[in-house]
């Protein structure tokens, strides 16, 4: 199973990364000034990752595919990396739905 990783960036801000079992990045949170915000974000990701309507799918001008995961109030709580196909993007969304609810939390901050 994958895991949520809390990191502290060189600028002093915190971020949550959802990683697959293989260590691939599935989703990145915004950056936060307080670590408690990361913990709250993890709980939101566990909840909203299960709702297909919360995934806002996008395409870049270079035809790369990605998505945002939104909360019920429309706030972005996670952003995916970019993918070369819609198929890859859909596979990652399905992996997040399976991984997020049970993922462990690793604090590297």
Give your account of this protein's structure:
- The protein is α+β, with helices and mostly antiparallel strands.
- It has one domain: PH-domain like.
- It has two helices and seven strands.
- The strands form two sheets. A four-stranded mixed sheet has the order 3-2-1-7, covered by helices on one side. The protein has a three-stranded antiparallel sheet with strand order 4-5-6, covered by helices on one side.
- A hairpin with a 5-residue loop joins β2 and β3.
- The radius of gyration is 13 Å and the shape is globular.
Identify the CATH architecture: Roll
Secondary structure: helix percent? 25-40%
Number of separate helices: 2
Order of SSEs: EEEHEEEHE
Report the end-to-end length measured between terminal Cα atoms: 21 Å
The overall number of domains is 1
- CA gyration radius, whole angstroms: 13 Å
CATH class: Mainly Beta
CATH topology: PH-domain like
Structural class assignment = alpha+beta
The parts where pLDDT drops under 50 for at least 5 residues are none
Number of beta strands: 7
Shape: globular
Assess the beta-strand content as a share of residues.
Answer: 35-45%
Sequence of strands across the biggest β-sheet: 3-2-1-7
Q: How many strands, what sense, and barrel or not for the largest sheet?
A: 4 strands, mixed
Determine the mean pLDDT.
96
Explain briefly what this protein structure is:
The protein has 109 residues and is an alpha+beta fold. It has two helices and seven strands; from the N terminus they run E-E-E-H-E-E-E-H-E. The chain has a single domain (3-103), classed as Roll (PH-domain like).
């Amino acid at each position: 199973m994958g895991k949520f990783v809390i990191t502290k960036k060189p600028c002093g801000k915190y971020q949550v990364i959802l990683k697959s079992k293989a260590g691939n990045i599935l989703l990145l949170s915004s950056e936060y000034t307080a670590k408690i915000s990361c913990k709250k974000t993890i709980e939101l990701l566990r909840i909203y990752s299960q709702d297909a309507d919360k995934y806002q799918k996008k395409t870049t001008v270079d035809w790369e595919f990605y998505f945002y995961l939104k909360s019920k109030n429309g706030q972005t709580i996670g952003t995916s990396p970019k993918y070369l196909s819609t198929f890859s993007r859909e596979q990652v969304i399905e992996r997040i739905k399976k991984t997020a609810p049970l993922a462990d939390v690793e604090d590297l901050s």
